[in-house]
Known about the structure:
Elements: H1 4-13, H2 46-57, H3 63-78, H4 80-93, H5 103-112, H6 118-121, E1 124-128, H7 137-157, E2 164-165, E3 168-169, E4 181-184, E5 191-194, E6 202-207, E7 210-215, E8 217-218, E9 221-222, H8 225-240, H9 255-268, H10 270-280, E10 285-288, H11 296-304, E11 317-321, E12 327-331, H12 338-353, E13 372-374, H13 380-398, E14 400-407, H14 412-417, H15 422-438, E15 444-449, E16 458-462, H16 466-475, H17 482-504, H18 510-518, H19 528-531, H20 533-538, E17 543-547, E18 553-557, E19 566-572, E20 577-584, H21 592-617
Parallel strand pairs: 6-10, 10-11, 15-17, 17-19
Antiparallel strand pairs: 1-12, 1-18, 2-3, 4-5, 6-7, 7-13, 8-9, 11-12, 14-20, 15-16, 19-20
Helix pairs in contact: 2-3, 7-8, 7-12, 9-10, 15-16, 15-17, 15-21, 16-17, 17-21
Amino acid sequence: xxxxxxxxxxxxxxxxxxxxxxxxxxxxxxxxxxxxxxxxxxxxxxxxxxxxxxxxxxxxxxxxxxxxxxxxxxxxxxxxxxxxxxxxxxxxxxxxxxxxxxxxxxxxxxxxxxxxxxxxxxxxxxxxxxxxxxxxxxxxxxxxxxxxxxxxxxxxxxxxxxxxxxxxxxxxxxxxxxxxxxxxxxxxxxxxxxxxxxxxxxxxxxxxxxxxxxxxxxxxxxxxxxxxxxxxxxxxxxxxxxxxxxxxxxxxxxxxxxxxxxxxxxxxxxxxxxxxxxxxxxxxxxxxxxxxxxxxxxxxxxxxxxxxxxxxxxxxxxxxxxxxxxxxxxxxxxxxxxxxxxxxxxxxxxxxxxxxxxxxxxxxxxxxxxxxxxxxxxxxxxxxxxxxxxxxxxxxxxxxxxxxxxxxxxxxxxxxxxxxxxxxxxxxxxxxxxxxxxxxxxxxxxxxxxxxxxxxxxxxxxxxxxxxxxxxxxxxxxxxxxxxxxxxxxxxxxxxxxxxxxxxxxxxxxxxxxxxxxxxxxxxxxxxxxxxxxxxxxxxxxxxxxxxxxxxxxxxxxxxxxxxxxxxxxxxxxxxxxxxxxxxxxxxxxxxxxxxxxxxxxxxxxxxxxxxxxxxxxxxx
Length: 621
C-alpha cells in the first residue's frame, strides 16, 4: 500500500517521475492493431468521485465519524483548492503525447520506487496442474520452453490476437515487457530494461544456485524438445557436481540495498558486467529446482519464493520445474499485470497438458555446444553482501504464514446456477469469512483491470459496502430468515458488480484521489480530505484480493500489503474455488488457517441459504 508520507515526499521531491520505454518496441501486427483507437484513461468529475468515495467509507465509520468525513468531503468539493487540483489533473491528462495521466506516477509509486523486496511483496506466482505425460523434470521443462517460445514468436511477429472483453479490445502495450525484459535496481527508483527479441534468442537456466545460458537456436533452427531436454540434463549434471556462491539471493533484497550491491557486483570485475548483461537480456528464466514439493502449501512456497537463491527475481518471467516434475511460474509485477501472463501460462499449459505443443524432431544434433555457465567473480565484499542478503531473505520469509484452501464443494458452474456473478459471490464469501473471524468489516482491495484504456493497468474495486456489511450481519443473525438472507446477499453482490463495472470504466475513486494528491505542489497545504483519518483507514487494505482463473492452475498467490492484513489470491474453476491466504506472523495475531476455515464455512452457508430460499419459494404441489 502507498503511504501518504511516501506520496507527498515523492511528489514534492521531483516533478518528473522515472519512466521506461521498450528498448525496441514490438508494437506491430494484429496484437497492436487497436492501440491507436483505444481511449485514454478518463479523469472523473469531482461530482462523480466524491459521493462514491463517501459511499465506500460509510460502512467503515461510526455515525459521528462519517458526519465529520462527509463535511470535509463536501467542503473539498466546493473549495477553490479542490477545483484547482481537478483542473491540474485534467490538464495533465490532456497534454499532447501523454498516453495515460496515471502511468508514470503509478509505475513509480507502486513499483519502481517501492523499496521493499519484490519477493514476497510485489511478485506473484501460478501453480500448475501436473503433467501426466511428462514425469521427468527436464522433459517437462523442455516442453514448457517450446510452448513459451511459440507464444513469444507470436508476440514478436505481432500475430497474437489482442485480448478482448466481448467486443472491446484491451491495451497490448505491456506485451513489450513480457520477454527479454528485466527490472534493474537503482536509487531512488528502479528502471525496466528490454532487449531486442531477434538478437537475444537465449534463455537463462538456474540450477543449484548457478546460472547457465542456453541458446535456443542452432544453425538457424530452433532446438527441439528432445534437444532442450538433453541440454538441460547436461546443465543439471554440471550444476549438481559443483557449488557456487548464491548470487541470485541479492535480487531478493531491499531495493536500495540491492541497488548498492548491484553496483558492487558489476564493478568487482568486467566479467560480472558481461554476465549480468547476458542474464538480463535472456528471453526468460527457467529454474530447475532440486526440491520435491508435495502439499499445496509446499508448492505455493516454492513458486512464491523458493530458497531465494535459485532465482533472479528481477526477471519478468520465471518458469519453475521441480525434481518431481511439479511446476509453476513467478512473475515480476512492475511493468506487467497478471492478465497477460495468465494468458501466456494458460497457453503453455493448454499446449503441454493436452499434448498440442510442437516438440520438433526427436533427433538430437551431435554438434550442439555445451551450455555456457554464467560465472560471477565474487570477492570477499560481494560474498559478505550475499550472506547478509540471504539472512534478510530468511528473516522476511520466516515472518510469513500461508494457507491454501482448496474448496471442492462447488465452483463457477454452480454459482451461476444459483444466479450470481462468480466473482461477486466469492468476494462476499471472503467478506463473510472475515466477519465471522473478526466481527467487523475492514477495507478490502480487489484489483480491477482498466486495460480498455491506453496503457491502462488497474483500479481498486472497494469490496466493502453498506450492502456487504448488511449481508454479513444478516448471515450471522439467527433471527433472519433465508429469504432475508438471500435478499441481503443479492443486494451485496449487485452493489459489488456495479462498483467493479465503474472501475473498469476508469470511474473508481482511488486512482482519481491519488491523482489529486499528486498534483499538489510543494508548499501547498494538504487538503483536509486527505488529512482525515477516515481516508487512511479506507485505503489501509486489511484484505488485498485478486482473481485470476485458469482451469490449468492449481492456484496462484501474492503477499499481504499491510502488516495487519491478508493477501488473498483466488482462482474460480468450474468445479472448485482455490484461495491462497498469506499474512505475516507478528504482533497482530493474524491466522491464515483460521481465515481459511471461516471462508470455507461462509461459502458453504451461502450456497445452502440460497438453495433453501429457492426451495421455500418454489410452488408447492
